[in-house]
Amino acid sequence: MRTVFAVALVVGLVAGGVLSAYRVATRSGSSPAGAGASPGVTVTATPAATGSPRATADAYVRAWSAGDIDALHRLLSRESQVRYPPAEFAAQYRDFETETTARTLEASVASVEGSTARLAVHLETGYFGAFDYTTALNLVREGDTWTVAWDRVAIHPDLSGLRSFHSNISRPARGAILDRNGVVLAQTVELRMLGLNRSLVSDRPALREALIAFGFPASGIDAAFESSAGQNQRVPVGPVPDDRAEAALALPGQFPGVIVYFESQRMHPLGAAAAHVVGYTRELNAAEVEARRAQGARPGDRTGASGLEAGLDDRLSGLPGAELILVGPDGATVRVIASQPFQPAEDVTTTLDAVVLTASYQRLAERPGSAVVIDPRTNTILALNSSPSFDPGIFERGDSAAIAAINASADAPLLNRATFGLYSAGSTFKLVTGAAGLISGIFTPSSTIYCGAIWDGIDPPRRNWEGAQGPLTIAGGLMRSCNPVFYEIAYQLYQSGTGILSKTARDFGFGTPSGVVGLAEEAGLVPDAEWKQKNRGETWFPGDEVNLGIGQGDLLITPLQLANAYSSFVAHELRTPVIVSGITAEARGPIPLSDAGFALLAEGLRLVAGPNGTANSVFWNAGYTNFAGKSGTAEDAGLQQHVLFVAMSPASAPAAIAAVVLDGGQSGSLEAGPIARDLVLSALSR
Q1: pLDDT of 24 higher than 80
Q2: Rounded CA gap, 655 and 374, in Å?
Q3: Among 43-57, 275-289, 337-351, 364-378, where is mean pLDDT lowest?
Q4: Rounded to an integer, what distance in angstroms lies between the CA atom of residue 680 and that of residue 624?
Q5: Model pLDDT for residues 454-489, shown as the tens digit of each residue
Q6: Structure confidence by residue, pLDDT tens digits, 619-654
């Protein structure tokens, strides 16, 4: 989509530039806009004119560079003042500035020969870059002073012969973000708004009551009245529903100061259900506007602030197109001075599913945590949620009170826990430990390891959470989540001196960004001997490896990495997750397990959800017999715990995987498990 601004509208592009300086400079003189000006203006004396051509030329470039149009006009000869009254004279400069999208102008005197001065001009524009040119200023002696015999060439040499500059600016409307089925997740719409010009309001209490009766919240009305904007500036109260348009249009006639207008605004139909993954936009700050001037940025422009809005901003924004041409008196193009090609904004279709996103938001139910749902067949992300969430509309509307409340919340609702939350993996990491044991060759699919009530491989001895279970294969160890089985594997791997446990964790994608295009994310941490020596100056001890074996210690992962690791296990290779349609998951390296090794670990994950597994009450006993997964409960600093569960189905050939991490809890199976199960079911129903 493209929004084309006619020339008359381009004046808004230079707010704060030379034009505003002109206006300030002429407050006590004639108006550059010609408001109330009379063609029969009385010519005044010219005290600013000087006694030499050079001095007058110097005074002229100083006034021009300062944007002081009154001072320029006072330097004109009497004949020129009559020919170009103040309003018409100012309009010549205003039109030049408008059409060239001028931002700043610096003029100096290059030379003076007789009665002609050559002026050197440096012009910075909003859309066409910088121009350096010279032009002529004709001077004439009037009595004891030198004045300017002005014509339009004094502004630019190409303005001779009634020629003029003309610009066309095309600005793209920000593209939409869609789910995989075309459901809108974000789009820019024209909203009918009701606002106030408080300088015209005569009865504030009565107007306030009328607006409350109309349906606007009192907080929004009060915020508009108390806005720090100028009293005669338009301040928004809120959007007007289509079915209330007629009633809104009647209000200005009843209450002076009420304004009904249209405004472009970014809308997020799913609201909090997709807030973190879709993100929101914000207004460019002054430094960013300045840095992007060459691309046509202007005050009030917006950019992506978080989520896909930020990560895909270049595609969603496009670039304004601009053309500056010189036209003759007949309107025909003499030549093209400069042009910038128009780059339309793109609509971006994602792999997200609005239904699954909404289900994920509802199942988390504002409990601090996150959920990621992936289709392992294509490694595409169906849902990515963080909780508690927020209404992205408060940022689009600029609701300062709501934004302040969000920022002050102790629950950090703006944090995207799915990509920036760093957690211990807990027992969900035992899949990696089992894989490392098999890859090392120290253990085989038929190996059994004793699951005792206490493991005393190192000092101090460590207890098993449910007591002795006897000898178990690695699959059996996963089924019962037996810590001693994985303590022993990790200890044997430490003794091998190969560092294979940390390496295998990286083979599963931990310790590095997942590489998903469109989202920012944390890298996490996979500790090893080199890392510990470098960062702590300490040796890597057996206890470090044993802690890592059950997903504890210094290991830090994101929920997105966790979901991707299990998806990569299903595919037998590490891949980048995909959230933008049209992108194929990139293979980043194989997981070097044998087919027998994959089969053994897959069987262990199936057993977890089976009749004898740790999650049997959530799956098998509840009638869900075609699932696999793994729970986790991890200790945080201060003895707090977070809980995790990764679920997948169908068990033999998963088509959906859900990883759920809750910031606090007692049981991964009982608390995170049902949420993960239901999200898999939601994905499979699509």
Answers
A1: no
A2: 8
A3: 43-57
A4: 11
A5: 999 999 999 998 999 999 999 999 999 999 999 999
A6: 999 999 999 999 999 876 555 689 999 999 999 999
What are the strands, taking DSSP E only, across 569-640?
A: 573-575, 587-590, 628-635
Strand blocks (E) in 446-536: 449-451, 454-455, 462-463, 470-472
The DSSP call for residue 644 is E
Tell me the C-alpha distance between 524 and 22, whole Å. 55
- On whether the CB atoms of residues 93 and 150 are closer than 8 A, the answer is no
Q: Is the peptide bond before 388 cis (omega within 30 degrees of 0)?
A: yes
Cα separation, 656 vs 686, whole angstroms:
11
d(CA 41, CA 239): 47
Strand residue runs (E) in 198-320: 234-239, 258-267, 281-283, 302-304
How far apart are the C-alpha atoms of 345 and 333, rounded to whole Å? 29
pLDDT of 37 > 60? The answer is: no
DSSP string, 101-113: TEEEEEEEEEEEE
Half-sphere exposure of 332 (CA within 13 A, CB side): 2
Q: Find all residues with CB under 8 Å of 49, minimum gap 6, and list them.
A: 56, 59, 74, 75, 142, 145, 146, 147
Indicate the average pLDDT of the chain. Answer: 90
Four-CA torsion 84, 88, 89, 93, nearest 10 degrees: -150
Dihedral angle over CA of 448, 455, 544, 419, nearest 10: 70
Residue 84 pLDDT exceeds 80: yes
pTM of the model: 0.81
Secondary structure E strands in 584-669: 587-590, 628-635, 641-649, 656-662
**How confident is the model over 89-121, as pLDDT tens digits?**
999 999 999 999 898 999 999 999 999 999 999
Q: Which residues contact 364 (CB under 8 A, 6 or more apart)?
A: 370, 371, 385, 387, 675
Separation between Cα atoms, residue 137 and residue 147, nearest integer Å: 10
Tokens standing for residue 675: 């949420």
Dihedral class, residue 651 (left if φ above 0, else alpha if ψ from -120 to 50, else beta):
alpha
Q: What is the DSSP letter of 271?
A: G
CA 476/CA 596 separation, integer angstroms: 15
Tokens at 339, concatenated = 């042009």
| Bond into 413 cis (ω within 30) | no
Of 349, 283, 339, 277, the closest CA to residue 306 belongs to: 277
Q: How many CA atoms lie within 13 A of 641 on its CB side?
A: 13
Question: Percent of the chain, pLDDT > 70?
Answer: 92
Determine the Cα–Cα distance for residues 657 and 191; give it in Å rounded to an integer. 39
Only one residue has tokens 């897959």, namely: 602
Distances in Å between the Cα of 625 and the Cα atoms of 116, 405, 567, 569, 619 are 95, 45, 20, 21, 6
pLDDT for 48: 57
Q: Average pLDDT in the 86-91 region?
A: 95
d(C-alpha 61, C-alpha 63), whole Å: 5
The label of the residue with tokens 């066309």 reads 168
Distance CA 483, CA 462 (A): 9
Q: Give the integer Cα–Cα distance in Å for 266 and 666.
A: 40
Count of positions (residues) in the chain: 686
Instruction: Identify residue 23 by its one-letter amino acid code.
Output: R
User: % helix / strand / coil in the chain, to the nearest 5?
Assistant: 40, 25, 35
Nearest one of 93, 36, 91, 17 to 60, comparing CA atoms? 93
**CA-to-CA distance for 301 and 283, rounded, in angstroms?**
6
In terms of Cβ atoms closer than 10 Å to its own Cβ (0-12, 13-18, 19+), residue 530 is exposed
How confident is the model at residue 11, as a pLDDT? 27
Q: How confident is the model at residue 293 (pLDDT cuts 50, 70, 90)?
A: confident
